[in-house]
Amino acid sequence: MLHRNHRLHARRLTAVEPVSAQRRGRSNAGHYWSSTMERHVAFGVAAEKHLLQWLDWRDDVVRIIHRPVGTEPSSADLPAYLVVHSNETVAFITDRTDAPFHRWSAALEKLTGWPTHTPPPMPPAFWANLKFLSQFRRPSTEREGLSEIVKKQFERPHSLAAVDDFPDRTAERRGVLFQLMWDHELSTDMNRRIGDSSIVWDPSAVVV
After folding, report:
1. Is 205 contained in some domain?
2. What pTM, to 2 d.p., does this model score?
3. Which of 57, 93, 171, 172 has its CA 20 to 30 Å from the CA of residue 135?
C-alpha cells in the first residue's frame, strides 16, 4: 500500500502487477537486468524499457519498482515506475503526457505526496548512447585491475581513442572504459554519438 511516509515504506514497495505478454497482449514485454537493483526489473512495452535504461543509468536512483500501484483494467494509465533517490525522495516516473494520465498522477500525488516526473527531452543520440553503454552495465571479473589504469588515462580530457595507446588488452580496456562511463566514473557528451573522437574525462579529477 502507498503511504506518505516514504522514508519508512518506499524501500519496501514491490511490483504488484505481474508482467505477462500473453495476458496483456504485449509481445515485447520482458525483464531487464538492472545494475541499480542488481536483479531483473520488468517492463511492459518498448517505451518502458527505454525509460528503465534511463533510470538504471542515473546515479541518483537507488531503487526502481515496476508498476508500483495495482489496478485491474486501467494499469496502462498508471506510471510505469516508482523510484527512490539517494536523497530519500520518491517519485513516479512515466513517459505519458496525455490527459487520462494527468488525472491519475494528480490522484496519486494527492494520495501519496509523491510527484510524477517525465524524462527531459533528449536528442536521439542520447538514447542511442544509452542503449550502447547499457551493454557494459554488468561488472566483469575479467576486467579487474584495469579500472584504475583506464581512469588514470583520462584524468585530463582525451579523445576516446586514447584508450588504445597501450597495445596490451586493448579490447578489454575499451570494455572497462564503457563500463566506467555507464557508472559515471568517466564522462562524455551524451548528446553526441559516442565514437573515437569523443572527449572523455574523469569528473572527479581536478583539471588545471
Report:
1. no
2. 0.79
3. 93
Cα separation, 39 vs 63, whole angstroms: 11
Tens digit of each residue's pLDDT (9 = 90 or more) over 30-89: 889 999 999 998 888 778 888 999 999 999 999 998 877 654 444 555 678 889 999 999
Q: For position 109, which CATH number holds?
A: 3.40.1350.10
Is 208 a domain residue? no
Which contacts qualify for 190-194: CB closer than 8 Å, 24 or more apart? 190/125, 190/126, 190/129, 190/130, 191/122, 191/123, 191/125, 191/126, 192/125, 193/125, 193/128, 193/129, 194/129, 194/132, 194/133, 194/160
Tell me whether residue 149 is in a domain: yes
Same domain for 170 and 186, yes or no, is yes
79 and 144: one domain? no
SS3 for 126? helix
In the chain, the amino acid numbered 33 is W
